[in-house]
Amino acid sequence: MKAAVLYSGGKDSTYALYWALQNGYDVKRLLVFIPKRDSMIFHEIPKGIGKIFEKAIGIPTIEIETKGKDREALELGIKKLSREGIELLITGGLASNFQKKIFSGAARKYGINTLAPAWGEDPENYMREIVKIFKFTIIKISSEGIPHNLLGKIITGEDVEDLIRRSKIYGFNPAFEGGEAETLVLSSPVHKKKIVLRDFSIEKESEYYAYLIIKRIELFD
Predict the structure, then answer these.
(1) What fold is seen in the domain 2-115?
(2) What angle do CA 82, 34, 174 make, to 5 degrees?
(3) What span, in angstroms and rounded, lies between the C-alpha atoms of 180 and 191?
(4) Closest CA to 67 of 42, 103, 34
């Protein structure tokens, strides 16, 4: 079965890709969307990064800038997949029924099935496993209680335990399923080249809202 992965470079979509390849799916495409700020559907990532993913992972990307029209862009992307004979769209996410309904509804219109391999996972256990498999950093924080010093830092098991502890105090989802933070995987078993953030700055807009401005990315074997 020819498959594609809805890919943002974050931990959840990278897990979806990792799971798909581990389970023998023939992943032909990474479908990458570049949304405007604070999208309800897509992970916010820099324009042009689809080609970085393509080089880092070795799977061709389709990159679409949404221009604020997320659902129209989603349908355009899925239509492109259907023209290439893609039968299955694999997505990340653990519990967002809102996103799952939108993705599956759009895919069905073009005869494409959807699969979310991490769906229903316990977020605390999921994070403990993810940090063992991937090297990732946080690129955006939009929730009270998540320390800004994690931006641009490779997240460790100790950081995950601290986030789990903080999630019980501040009420955010420890796997960021509610959009409380966004991540970027720098290396993993699916990466042929590791991603290195050579130059970035941190923009802080409030006590809880901050993000990386990535100025230069390099790839290394």
Answers:
(1) Rossmann fold (3.40.50)
(2) 100
(3) 26
(4) 34
pLDDT in tens, 50-71: 889 999 999 999 999 998 899 9
pLDDT digits (tens, 9 = 90+) for 73-88: 999 999 999 999 999 9
Question: What ranges do the domains of the chain cover?
Answer: 2-115, 123-220
Domain 123-220 of CATH type 3.10.450.120: no
Among 136, 141, 174, CA closest to 155:
136
2-115 and 123-220 agree in CATH topology: no
Q: Is the pTM of this model over 0.85?
A: yes
Other beta carbons less than 10 A from residue 13's beta carbon: 25
Output the six-digit token pair for 15: 């897990």
